[in-house]
Design goal:
By secondary structure, the chain is α/β, with parallel strands linked by helices. It has 16 helices and 15 strands. It folds into 2 domains: 2-70 and 365-404, Urease, subunit C, domain 1, CATH 2.30.40; 71-357, TIM Barrel. It binds N-(iminomethyl)-L-glutamic acid and fe (iii) ion.
């Protein structure tokens, strides 16, 4: 089926590939734009005049709206049991995330709840989250395991991610994150050995996860432990990701760049020399503004990363501990107001660069020929409105592979 989308006051295409540094300032905007979709795939993009010439087929009028590529949330932990509202209260009273973790709270609390939950329960909750995300314009999502920390539960989480890959129209990218925390009663090195010998090979066999990730942090894993884990992951065919410099500068970014990781994520406490390293590399620098917001920490130095030439992407980091939200409108506002990113940089980070952080930049993340027709129609006529209507969801309709999704 063929459909011409027109009546687009501002068409943000983000076409022309992954954006690095200054190139992020250009989100590829076409005024009075239009594009043609055939069987869920974008065929042509241009101005309304160009695309209407000689066209006799069906058309969909967007009513003078802003249209952007669908957002790709390249960092989530959205399959988990239970909640940790109590910890949030402790943090409000002054406890730090790391001190709660040192007291035996944090990730391992969610591990207990996730071990108890059935696959069906986890799947039902995950589907709800995905539907909520979609209503905010998300058409692609990365999901990590890491609340099992043992074979059975890691595989249960992976099975849920696999089920979502089949049931959802959205792009769902899986990441194995067995090395998310040190399980109770374990020594970190011994647990890394278990990951290397059992968990990583088992995860690889499922074929669900494109990536392997690790939390390099005080109280979690050292850069040396991460190196052993990531080298094994690479051997098994995983792309690499790293949680680095979230609470303390711990060498994760340097390691990620050295091993050619697809992305290094968080970066709140990144050292100057690592900003330079990351900016010069092909490793995507993924910022997670909602986490900094929820933890009351300083934001990642996105401005310096972009000015240094990095490929910057943005994700939600949705998880039950440090960031129990995936609110895209709020994320956009934080990036503009506090991280001093321009709206075009923000759109680049949330679309094509997010897709790149998931290794899906050839399929989604931009409105250009050959890509899936994953796009969003907004209830406004310009991209400037996105941060201006602060934290408000202006999404009118979301299309995935050319199909309009339900409200
Ligand atoms: O990205 N840093 C490690 N993982 C999450 C937190 C997970 C949790 O607290 O449950 C994060 O912030
Ligand atoms: Fe995370």
């Amino acid at each position: 089926m063929e459909m011409l989308y027109r009546g687009i006051a501002e068409l943000v295409t983000c076409r022309g590939g992954v954006r690095r540094g200054r190139a992020m300032q250009d989100a590829g905007v076409v005024k009075d734009g239009a594009f043609l979709v055939q069987d869920g795939v974008i065929e042509r993009v241009g101005t309304r005049g160009e695309l209407e010439k000689g066209y006799r087929g069906e058309a969909y009028d967007c009513g003078g709206a802003l249209v952007t590529p669908g957002f790709v949330d390249s960092h989530t932990h959205l399959v988990f049991g239970g909640e940790r509202a109590e910890e949030f209260g402790w943090r409000l009273r002054g406890d730090s995330y790391l001190s709660i973790m040192e007291r035996g709270g944090g990730i391992v609390k969610t591990v207990d709840a996730t071990r108890k939950a059935s696959e069906g329960e986890l799947l039902a909750r995950a589907k709800k989250h995905l539907a909520n995300m979609r209503r905010m314009g998300v058409t692609g999502v990365e999901i990590k395991s890491g609340y099992g920390l043992e074979s059975e539960t890691e595989l249960k989480q992976i099975a849920v991610i696999g089920a979502l890959q089949k049931s959802e129209r959205m792009q769902v990218v899986g990441t194995f994150m067995g090395a998310h925390a040190i399980p109770r009663g374990w020594d970190a090195d011994a647990y890394i050995d278990l990951c290397i010998n059992e968990l990583l090979p088992q995860a690889a066999k499922t074929g669900v996860c494109d990536f392997a990730d690790i939390f390099v942090e005080r109280g979690a894993f050292t850069a040396a432990q991460a190196e052993r884990y990531l080298r094994r992951a690479r051997e098994l065919g995983f792309g690499l990701k790293v949680h680095s410099d979230e609470m303390t500068a711990s060498g994760g970014t340097e390691l990620g760049v050295k091993l050619g990781a697809k992305s290094a994520d968080h970066l709140l406490k990144i050292r100057d020399e690592d900003i330079v390293r990351l900016s010069k590399s092909d490793t995507v620098a993924t910022v997670l503004p909602l986490t900094a917001f929820c933890l009351g920490e300083e934001y990642a130095p996105a401005r310096r990363l972009i000015d240094g030439g990095a490929i910057v992407a943005a994700g939600s980091d949705f998880n039950p501990g440090s960031c129990c939200t995936y609110n895209v409108p709020l994320m956009i506002a934080l990036m503009c107001i506090y991280m001093k990113m321009t709206v075009d940089e923000v759109l680049s980070a949330l679309t094509i660069n997010g897709a790149a952080a998931c290794g899906r930049e050839r399929e989604t993340g931009s409105i250009e020929s050959g890509k899936w027709a994953d796009f969003v129609i907004f209830d406004c006529d310009s991209r400037e409105c996105l941060p201006y209507y602060t934290g408000m969801n202006l999404v009118r309709s979301v299309f995935i592979k050319g199909e309009k999704t339900d409200g």
